[in-house]
Amino acid sequence: MKAAHYWHCFVGIQTREWLRFWQQRTRFASALVRPLLWLVVFAAGFRAVLGISIIPPYQTYITYETYIAPGLCGMIILFNSMQGALSMVYDRELGSMRVLLMSPLPRPFLLVTKLLSMGVVSVGQVYVFLLLALLVDVEPPLWGYLAVLPALVLTSLMLGALGLLIATWIKQLENFAGVMNFVIFPMFFMSSALYPLWKMNEASPWLYWICQFNPFTHAVEAIRFSLYLEWNPVAFGITSGVTVVLALLATAGFRPQRTRILGTKPA
Amino acid sequence: MISLFKHTALATMIGLSTPALASLAYVSNEKDNTLSVIDTDSMEVVDTIDVGARPRGILLSKDYTKLYICASDDDTVQVLDLATRKIIDTLPSGEDPEQFALHPNNKHLYISNEDDAIVTVVDVTNKDVLAQINVGIEPEGMAVSPDGKWAVNTSETTSMLHWINTETFEIEKNIVVGQRPRHVEFSKDSKIAWASAEIGGTVHIIDVGNLEQIHEMSFKVPGVNQDRVQPVGIELTDDGKYAFVALGPSNHVAVVDAQTYEVLDYLLVGSRVWQLDLDKDQKHLFTTNGVSGDVSVIDVAELKVIKSIKVGRYPWGVVVDPTS
């Protein structure tokens, strides 16, 4: 196999993801409404309740809107990744995934390319969200918008790999909605997305430790620190490590033949 | 490597032999009985100086060699030599001095004595008490116009501004303002005075020419209960563009267009923001945040809070030495 084949395949998968995105423009818009509601409605109500304090990477007091914006960036990627995984289950059930996997290129390459293409769409949504967040005075430094890109790509890879791993366990589409509820909500709420960890520690130490072990916490912190031009090696290290482990597990475990379509036996 | 060592050693020697070029801000810490010294370039506390009990109002002498400190619980005004950072003298102040103002002649210090309802005028050169002027109940804020003609005292309970003629030491006019007036600030040309009323939640703008109020303004900080919006410190930029008003427990500083009196923005700072001062080129505004124990720094051009610096407990006053 030559590099040209890989490139051809890479472009093909990217193009398909963008075509899918273009056909589902309303999904793109609705995916933005969710974090915007959190930012505008939830944060406005809670800004006085939660109090303020200075924590890195911030140099001074911040509004609650400013605090939760990086967490909501993570939320966009989290929902997108899980929806991407859902679409993979669809693909598998409808056979298009098998068409993709018939490619003679190595399966890990195909799956990682698929994750990257889903990530690109997520990152685009995050940037639109960050632009809209300017309207409620969430104003990170200008270079922060560029510096946050690696953290966003890394987060989308990590969560995409998680989605893929979950998709390998799911035998039927119907099971997936339940799993999403058991993955998305605990991951989001038990992280530093909505509350700083010191606040969690005040509330309950065991909750604090759950948040510490949640890789989503570290993904959010990697986004938060990069957005404010600070380097957080711990957050990046943990997010990268978890990404590699999840991607290895997901690609090794992905078996298209495990799919059963509405009770029929696999071919 | 040897060359690098030589350069480093040389740089260290130069650094040791020349005085620091950084500009310094002094902050009085009411509960710690100390002053924090902040390097305004690195925005870090570089020294802490022990002073008298409950330091509140602080101001610089007109030649910027001394810092006067109201040591409220010691019932005295202390004089700090800025070169040595040692207390070199004390002045008679009357009981419980909280705020004071120095006449442009660099001699007459006007001190408000909250418990005695008087303003004491002290000559700082020979410590003579030149006058004790009866004012309203609980005198608080004190200001002298840059042209030296007027001294203004605010009395908290009487809710008045007392206009004292600096030649006769007599009150010439009383102006009723909002409840609990705290602070008065003159424009650079001495034509306009701004007075804050803490409980009233208002700022009053006075035409100094005819001693009449020309405008009264109030504040509404989004998401903050109105009774927490309590104007205290005021600072005006020399270019006449902005007035900054510290809004106490609302934890915000209001940015006001000094020409139209329109509130342009509310900037989030620490808890119970109290007094303000601009640095020498008026690029940064420093705010003392009493309850959170820090000083926030506002970029004046951007109108953004760029940093908050931890100082002692209950920081009260702040002055930036323009010569350092």
From TrEMBL, chain A:
Subcellular location: Cell inner membrane; Membrane
Protein name: Transport permease protein
Pfam families associated with the record: ABC2_membrane
The entry's keywords: Cell membrane, Membrane, Transmembrane, Transmembrane helix, Transport
Organism classification: Bacteria, Pseudomonadati, Pseudomonadota, Gammaproteobacteria, Pseudomonadales
Transmembrane segments: 36-55, 67-90, 111-136, 142-167, 179-198, 234-254
Matches recorded under NCBIfam families: phenyl_ABC_PedC (TIGR03861)
Family: Belongs to the ABC-2 integral membrane protein family.
Highest taxon above the source species: Bacteria
Entry keyword annotation includes Membrane: yes
Organism, as annotated: Marinobacter iranensis
Domain (ABC transmembrane type-2): residue spans on this chain: 26-257
Leader sequence residues: none
TrEMBL record, chain B:
Keywords of this entry: Signal
This protein's record includes keyword Signal: yes
UniProt xrefs under Gene3D superfamilies: YVTN repeat-like/Quinoprotein amine dehydrogenase
Cleaved signal peptide residues: 1-22
InterPro entries linked: Host-pathogen_enzymatic-act (IPR051200), Lactonase_7-beta_prop (IPR019405), N2O_reductase_N (IPR011045), PQQ_b_propeller (IPR022456), WD40/YVTN_repeat-like_dom_sf (IPR015943), YVTN_b-propeller_repeat (IPR011964)
UniProt keyword Signal, yes or no: yes
Name listed for the protein in its UniProt record: YVTN family beta-propeller repeat protein
Organism: Marinobacter iranensis
